[in-house]
From TrEMBL:
This is ATP synthase protein I. It is a multi-pass membrane protein. Keywords: Cell membrane, Membrane, Transmembrane, Transmembrane helix. It is found in: Cell membrane. It holds the Pfam family ATP-synt_I. The chain crosses the membrane at residues 16-37, 43-65, 85-102, 108-128. GO terms for cellular component: plasma membrane.
Length: 134
């Protein structure tokens, strides 16, 4: 029997939190720059692209960091797989929703912002390395 021990630290103290906050800053920054230099459509398209990356990443991080400790190893692995599957499904649903519900849309701004937020997540090791251990 696997004992699932909830993470005693609040979510904002997990190693994923600073990465997600940086992804939020990148999302807002890219959207602002696009809005200022290319107009309103590019701005909200960039915002939506960033959110398509950020929301599934947040879901994944929440799932994976719900448990901690050696006794929770199996639960953590299970959450990793189900969190990744949920992240992929959520990403697909969000992209489809954006394509079908938003018009006009700047496709380049959506993908550019999406990729910028993913690149921020890819550099997470550099961000988390400096994260204080409490």
């Amino acid at each position: 029997m696997v004992v699932k021990t909830p993470n005693k630290a609040p979510f904002h103290r997990t190693p994923a939190f600073p990465v997600l906050m940086l992804q939020l800053v990148v999302t807002l920054g890219v959207a602002l720059v696009l809005w200022l230099f290319q107009g309103l459509v590019a701005g909200y398209s960039g915002l939506l692209g960033g959110l398509v990356a950020l929301i599934p990443n947040s879901y994944f991080a929440f799932r994976v960091f719900r448990y901690s400790g050696a006794r929770s190893a199996r639960a953590i692995v299970g959450e990793f797989y189900s969190g990744e599957a949920g992240k992929l499904i959520l990403t697909a649903v969000l992209f489809i929703t954006v394509w079908l519900a938003v018009e006009p849309l700047n496709v380049a701004a959506v993908f550019g912002s999406y990729l910028a937020v993913l690149a921020t997540g890819a550099s997470a090791l550099l961000i988390v390395r400096g994260f204080p251990k409490h």
